[in-house]
Amino acid sequence: MSTATDLRVGVVGAGIMGADHIDRLSRTISGAAVSAIVEPDAARAAAAAQTAPGAAVFGRIEDAIAAGVLDAVLVATPGRFHEPVLAPALEAGLPILCEKPLTPDSASSLRVVELERKLGRPHIQLGFMRRFDDEYRALRELVVSKEAGDLLMLRGVHRNPSVPDTYTESMLITDSVVHELDVMPWLAGSPIRSIEVKHPRRNALSPERLREPILVLIELENGVLVDVEMNVGAQFGYQVTAEAVFQTGIARIGQPAGLQRWADGAFRIAEHVTYTTRFARAYDTQVQAWVDAVRDGSLVAGPTAWDGYLAALACEAGVRALTESGPVAVPSAARPDFYA
Ligand code: ISE
Asked: Which terminus of the chain has a smaller tally of CB atoms within 10 A, N or C?
């Protein structure tokens, strides 16, 4: 139940992630309520409004801002629509949680960064939710503690059962591998130097427009080498795992958990089929941390727009690597003090 002191959040976009966040803000998160749903598709907006009965529905963010019903904004549209939403929200001085990617390319990400800098301090938290996943966090602590010595290699597996018709070849990088392009440097504590893509045998069951799966080799500036299997036609379920090789041992995260069952001569354990369940806890932790930060005035409690800009630079190299052979260099960009 919402109260008068709740943070009034406008959710922009009521697709899969938007609807999931509207439900989360209404049922799970404390100290916030959905005050507005901004969604041009009336049927989608109406469906989402059922989980947030007090919310007003708008077709454009400008109208929600003008109505004075927002304390903060959660942006969950596809990445290509982010900049036109972020710009008016920043101009109105609103704190923002923006789903990844920040924008589809580095030039537009930099425009957003420049707009944000006019506000004097960061207002955008970027939705790289893996940084809020308990196991990713535990792995990062292990790296930082040096308990297992230096980190040498990281291996990632990112499997989707299938993807929608709107999913294109470059989205293998910009929509999916973008998570690894953020979380692997974060785990290893080092920026990316280069990206290379290798093409194994194509999965003939995948849509013809996709040459996949792919193997992505990411070299970090500290020498740590990362390999990622990006597979969006895995058919069986949704799986995101990582393995870290240290000087004195290995560590693994993301293994299936839950009820183990032996029956009919087989051993079974359930696997996720989609990211909204695989990362449900991480999304909860992320959104709660953001709401708490906005309410206590610190505004941001996680990755920033600068991290979005770095990911956009890495994505550009990754997209080139889809068709070029050999490693493609990722330009380095020193983090401004503003984002320290
Ligand atoms: C989707 O947009 C996500 O962000 C998921 O986490 C990722 O696994 C999937 O590949 C993307 O399409």
From this structure: N
